[in-house]
UniProtKB/TrEMBL annotation:
<comment type="similarity">
    <text>Belongs to the cation diffusion facilitator (CDF) transporter (TC 2.A.4) family. SLC30A subfamily.</text>
</comment>
<feature type="transmembrane region" description="Helical">
    <location>
        <begin position="48"/>
        <end position="65"/>
    </location>
</feature>
<feature type="transmembrane region" description="Helical">
    <location>
        <begin position="86"/>
        <end position="105"/>
    </location>
</feature>
<dbReference type="InterPro" id="IPR050681">
    <property type="entry name" value="CDF/SLC30A"/>
</dbReference>
<dbReference type="InterPro" id="IPR002524">
    <property type="entry name" value="Cation_efflux"/>
</dbReference>
<protein>
    <submittedName>
        <fullName>Cation diffusion facilitator family transporter</fullName>
    </submittedName>
</protein>
<feature type="domain" description="Cation efflux protein transmembrane">
    <location>
        <begin position="19"/>
        <end position="209"/>
    </location>
</feature>
<dbReference type="InterPro" id="IPR027469">
    <property type="entry name" value="Cation_efflux_TMD_sf"/>
</dbReference>
<feature type="transmembrane region" description="Helical">
    <location>
        <begin position="117"/>
        <end position="140"/>
    </location>
</feature>
<dbReference type="InterPro" id="IPR036837">
    <property type="entry name" value="Cation_efflux_CTD_sf"/>
</dbReference>
<feature type="domain" description="Cation efflux protein cytoplasmic">
    <location>
        <begin position="214"/>
        <end position="289"/>
    </location>
</feature>
<keyword id="KW-0406">Ion transport</keyword>
<feature type="transmembrane region" description="Helical">
    <location>
        <begin position="152"/>
        <end position="174"/>
    </location>
</feature>
<feature type="transmembrane region" description="Helical">
    <location>
        <begin position="20"/>
        <end position="42"/>
    </location>
</feature>
<feature type="transmembrane region" description="Helical">
    <location>
        <begin position="180"/>
        <end position="200"/>
    </location>
</feature>
<keyword id="KW-0812">Transmembrane</keyword>
<keyword id="KW-0472">Membrane</keyword>
Length: 300
């Protein structure tokens, strides 16, 4: 069994931010849903639906960060449970898309005649939602560039902020013009915005699950840098992927030049290169003599 490096993911360090944001969003969701139903406002109901997605997504992120740090008693999870955070981000994507589809369907149903809406309630609840979302943005922004989990939560809150602005605008327009269709139009605009944000985040989630190279690392550049290490003639079987946000992993085989070569020094230099230049702390490197046939016997 290999030893445990004791890594902690970026999301774990910012868990307290998720906890506060979860509490604020969960409390406001109840208020907004009740207000939307009473005011018969599709914009409020749609934004409440998005808030519900936030509650589930933030809750899933909290559970995922707890699972990610849980010790593995089976010995079979050799990479730990850090991928739970990525799955939580995937849940956020599905929820955002689901909310968007619901809003569109409900808007289509209202084409036969939009009901009367309480514009005053819309503006009041929208303003309260805007305040809650601004607080949550301040909480989650710092960790959003370090963690895909926090980025998913952050994007959800950003989308909610736009939704709150839309609700306020819809209330103002309904009151100023008397046209109830502004409520439906704003709801559709919120749906489109939420869907686009979900697709953007979903691409990042799929890139991690598909084990693509980290987005800020060029595999060709890594291979060239390793070939420049003294006494290395060739680099093959180079693999780069992201375990979870802030935790990139690499493996590589380095073939030495003919003649004597210090394998220990090559390992030290290559490891330092991966850490300092590419930010990859966990690199598994195999040094091979030029006449080695070990890799030629592999099937893939």
């Amino acid at each position: 069994m290999g030893h445990d490096h004791g890594h902690g993911s970026a999301a774990t360090a910012h868990r307290w931010r998720l906890q506060i944001a979860f509490g604020l969003v969960a409390a406001f969701f109840t208020v907004e849903l009740a207000s939307g139903l009473l005011a018969r406002s599709l914009a409020l109901i749609s934004d409440a639906g998005h808030m519900a997605a936030d509650v589930v997504a933030l809750g899933a992120a909290l559970v995922a960060t707890r699972i990610a740090t849980r010790p593995d008693a089976t010995g079979r999870r050799t990479y730990g449970s850090y991928r739970a955070e990525v799955f939580a981000s995937g849940i956020a994507v599905l929820l955002m898309l689901g909310v968007s589809v619901y809003i569109v369907i409900e808007a289509i149903r209202r084409f036969g005649g939009a009901p009367e809406v309480a514009s005053g309630t819309m503006m009041l609840v929208g303003t309260l939602g805007l305040l809650i979302n601004v607080i949550c943005i301040g909480l989650l922004r710092n960790g959003s560039e370090e963690s895909l989990t926090l980025k998913g939560a952050y994007l959800e809150v950003v989308a909610d902020t736009i939704g709150s602005v839309g609700v306020i605008a819809a209330g103002v327009l309904v009151r100023a013009t008397g046209d109830r269709w502004w409520d439906t139009i704003v709801a559709l605009a919120i749906a489109v915005f939420v869907a686009l944000r979900a697709i953007w985040l979903g691409r990042e989630v799929l890139a991690v699950l598909g084990q693509h190279a980290p987005k800020d690392v060029d595999p060709h550049e890594v291979a060239g840098a390793l070939e420049d290490v003294a006494d290395v003639s060739e680099v093959h079987d180079l693999h780069l992927w992201t375990l979870t946000s802030g935790m990139s992993v690499a493996t590589a085989h380095l073939v030495t030049t003919p003649g004597p070569a210090d394998a220990h020094r090559i390992l030290t230099d290559a490891g330092a290169l991966m850490r300092e230049r590419f930010g990859i702390e966990h690199a598994t490197i195999q040094v091979e003599p030029p006449d080695s046939s070990a890799c030629s016997r592999t099937s893939w």
